[in-house]
Design a protein that fits this description.
It is a single chain. Strand 7 and strand 8 form a beta hairpin. The protein contains no helices and eight strands. It has a four-stranded mixed β-sheet with strand order 1-3-6-5, with no helix packed on it. Strands 2-8-7-4 form a four-stranded mixed β-sheet, with no helix packed on it. The protein is globular and about 40 Å long. The chain is mainly β.
């Protein structure tokens, strides 16, 4: 069992991992704009964490500072799994950006 790190650069291409691995996905996010990442996870990926992580800034109290959305999940079954991440405002129907991650668990 390993910790696998993913970013936006890993979208669309298959990522090989193993059942039992934990995956950590980090995507840039600025919640003060209203845009937040939302997830579409298959039941074979069990969410462990979903949180906003503030960026390291010179002023720790900098209002509106950008950061990252951190999603961590466990892979509970072998096979192909598709995770979709959508950057959207909750009050708008359409996503501004969408990324698809294809995971191949052995």
């Amino acid at each position: 069992m390993a910790l696998v790190h993913l970013s936006a650069a890993d979208a669309d291409g298959p990522t090989e991992l193993h059942r039992g691995d934990t995956v950590e996905l980090r995507l840039p996010e600025s919640p003060t704009t209203g845009y937040r990442w939302r997830w579409r996870l298959p039941v074979t990926l069990r969410m462990v964490a979903d949180e906003h992580v503030d960026a390291m800034t010179t002023r720790l109290d900098a209002p509106g500072a950008a950061g990252e959305r951190r999603l961590a999940f466990d892979v509970t079954a072998a096979g192909l799994h598709e995770l979709r991440a959508e950057l959207a405002r909750p009050w708008e129907g359409e996503a501004r950006e969408a990324l698809t991650f294809v995971l191949h668990a052995l």
